[in-house]
Amino acid sequence: MAEIPYQNIDIPQNNPLGFREEMPASPPATSKKLSPKIILLIALGAIILLLFIISLIVSSRRKNSNSITPIITPTPTEIIAPTVSKSLLPEIYQEKFETIENNINQDLEIEIPVIDLEIGL
Amino acid sequence: MEVRVLSAALFLLNYFMWLFFLLFFFFNLSPVKAQTQDELFTQYRQDYLFLRDEYQKNYLDFLNKKNVYIQYRSITSEQDMVESTKTVLFSRNKMLKSFLMALRVSLDKYKNINSVNTEKNQIQLSKWEEWLDEQNLIIPNFTNSSDIKEWATLFKNRYLEIQNAFYQALTQADVNLRLYNLNEIKLLAEEIKTDPKNNNFTQDWFANFPVKSDLIKNSLETATALAQKPQKARTFNNYYPEVRVQTQKADSYLESLLADLKAITIKFYN
Fold it and tell me: A37 and B6 in contact by Cβ < 8 A?
């Protein structure tokens, strides 16, 4: 009885036949050049993104500059005197009294029209 | 492959464009504020003043054209006078409408004090605003003096009602303001009453309050009654000066109430 040569399929290193398994060959990686249209579009996208970032920075800076409170420069002739409340009323009621007082003397600021009813007669 | 990359690039470009514009507007535009009642009234008042100036200019032009016609009695001068009359009547209606609008908007401020009567006045004013608008559709169609004369007679009669409507609205505005002030004084007094420093100092003030409050209300009721009186004569009987007397009386009571309250507050705080 002749000896039948065999291959242990569980251990690929044990390959007494020197048999090479045929593997599907992967296509060679080729560097394809992008068309000028795509390059143009990507460039445009990048410009827009850049503009967007710039606008964000500018608007945030503008907001910051608006929030800066102006510093009052003191006039040299001014004499610093302790402030005394003009009213003897406690502060919590001062504003309320003032509001009502102003409201009492407030009238509707609208002039009544004066017209000539004889036009066309 | 190229088509896929191109479509992806287009999608990205589109996406960034929209994102850019949305964020740009979001960061740069200030939000649109709703107009307050005061702002709206100021705007309408300015419109009224502008249209009043326009009317006055057109009125002077009308007087000139009328004088020329009286002097020469020519067809051309008559035609000029007809055109200037149409212009002045048109601008007069616009001015009156803007006045009624400003008045109607001003009533919103203290409407809660007497919403039913205030609403009635506002409806009346709106009605006359619409009527004036309708008349301005008719005026450009006049071709001669007799058309104008006929319309001017109608307007003269209707103006009695318009005057009554706006004087009633003015009276309502005055009454609402005084009632609002009375309520504000009462609320302030109640706040002062609960002040820890107040040791029953406001007791007398609260005892006198109903008397003064009644006097104020009586004055305001008299003012309202004057405005509600039907107009019988062919000319407008202007009751508004009498209304002003009543509202000024109410003001003096309000001032007295407030002055007393102020004196009491100063007393227990010093």
Answer: yes
Listed range (B109-118, B123-132, B195-204) with the worst mean pLDDT: B195-204
To the nearest whole Å, the CA of A30 is away from the closest chain B CA by: 13
| B88 close to B62: Cβ distance less than 8 angstroms | yes
Specify the residue for token string 């035609």: B79
- Check B20 against A109: CB less than 8 A apart: no
* d(C-alpha B139, C-alpha B58), whole Å: 15
Distance CA B5, CA A38 (A): 8
And the tokens for A47? 């410009």
Q: Residue A119 and residue B262: Cβ atoms within 8 Å?
A: no
- Indicate left, alpha or beta for B29 from its phi (over 0: left) and psi (-120 to 50: alpha): beta
Question: Phi and psi (nearest 5°) for A2?
Answer: -75, 145
Say which of B10, B62, B192 has its CB closest to residue A93: B192
Tens-digit pLDDT profile for residues A42-69 = 899 899 999 989 989 988 887 766 554 5
- Which of A55, A91, A94, A100 to mutate to probe the B interface, most B CBs <10 Å? A100
Is A88's CB within 8 Å of B27's CB?
no
pTM over 0.90: no
Give the CA angle between residues B157, B104, A116 to the nearest 5°.
35
What are the phi and psi torsion angles at A10 (to 5°)? -75, -30
Residue B73 to residue B67: CA distance in whole angstroms:
10
